[in-house]
């Protein structure tokens, strides 16, 4: 009998798999995918398990636990290109880059999960997105039944999304190439909180080791670094993405905020390149009445350190976690008219149709 998938996720939630296959080579990955596709069997690719919410009933098909390892280096053209197997641990790779004087992903330190997951989600933090350094992705195209090399333009990168996320049944990411700068200092620091922690102006730089240490400290203070001694770390990271609104929708939200909170309330805003405006999901959640720690201290609750993290306090179920998420999203929608979008991938169940409140 396959083990519960709770052992393979950072939320420590999820029921059993129909079958669990461990793959340590690219050939084994492709063979398992082809076998499942030929048989019409449901397939779930799982590596670090940091961005998934698996149903209590589990997953009825094959779960392919991707554990491929290896890094290749190529120097030239003013950049260093590291091509990394999908099963490599992301933060270990980020630490290696900082240690070798390779800049470009230092602000993404401490993010749990695997290298292969980073282009799927277009992970980002503290002013950096992984799409800024991805030079290419090698994948197995399940629709065509062949290996493909995808340029960054083919990856469909968007805020916390990509072509891989938009079409999860098509590609299996096998390795990712990153183009990094040879530099003992970071790329320009764009995030105000990080710049303040480093004592540099926004747009300034700092030694890579210092940036990595500062990012880890900030993440740890928010329960966003894996730590078995910290109950706030038993999460899927940020549960909701920050809303990005067009001009009319943002103006309508501003009016609603003023009506609800008073004209002095200042709605957070970050302009997007396409003219839209990003705002803070955490700010909306807190002002909709959901304080840190909201929920049940025994089952599931909002983290005591970060309003965007929903945590399993040790006795929770996936159903309870999703119910809490719907309660929060419903409260934000009722007060501010904004729909929050979950960031994690739902496995064996859907976001729609979950109960609106915890019973």
Runs with pLDDT <50, length 5+?
Answer: 353-359
- Structural class, by secondary structure, is alpha+beta
Helix-strand sequence: EHEEEEEHEHEEEEHEHHEEHEEHEEHE
Biggest sheet record? 6 strands, antiparallel
The CATH C-level class name of the largest domain: Alpha Beta
Shape: globular
> What is the count of β-strands?
19
Overall average pLDDT: 95
Q: Domains counted in the coordinates: how many? A: 3
Strand content: 15-25%
> Might you state the CATH topology name of the largest domain?
Uridine Diphospho-n-acetylenolpyruvylglucosamine Reductase, domain 3
User: What's the architecture of the largest domain in CATH terms?
Assistant: 2-Layer Sandwich
**CA-based gyration radius:** 20 Å
Instruction: Give the N-terminus to C-terminus distance in angstroms.
Output: 32 Å
Instruction: Note the total helix count.
Output: 9
The residue fraction in helices comes out at 25-40%
Name some characteristics of this structure.
Uridine Diphospho-n-acetylenolpyruvylglucosamine Reductase, domain 2, 359 residues, three-stranded parallel beta sheet, Uridine Diphospho-n-acetylenolpyruvylglucosamine Reductase, domain 1, 26% helix, 19 strands, globular, six-stranded antiparallel beta sheet
Task: Give a quick precis of the structure.
With 359 residues, this protein is α+β, with helices and mostly antiparallel strands.
Structure description:
It is a single chain. The protein is of the alpha+beta class and 359 residues long. It has 3 domains: 5-66, Uridine Diphospho-n-acetylenolpyruvylglucosamine Reductase, domain 2 (2-Layer Sandwich); 71-221, Uridine Diphospho-n-acetylenolpyruvylglucosamine Reductase, domain 3 (2-Layer Sandwich); 231-347, UDP-N-acetylenolpyruvoylglucosamine reductase, C-terminal domain (Uridine Diphospho-n-acetylenolpyruvylglucosamine Reductase, domain 1, Alpha-Beta Complex). Helix content is 26%, strand content 24%. The chain is built from 9 helices and 19 strands. Strands 5, 6, 7, 10, 11 and 12 form a 6-stranded antiparallel sheet that branches. A 3-stranded parallel sheet has the order 1-4-2, with helices on one face. The protein is globular and about 60 Å long. The relative contact order is 0.13. Mean pLDDT is 95; it is low at 353-359.
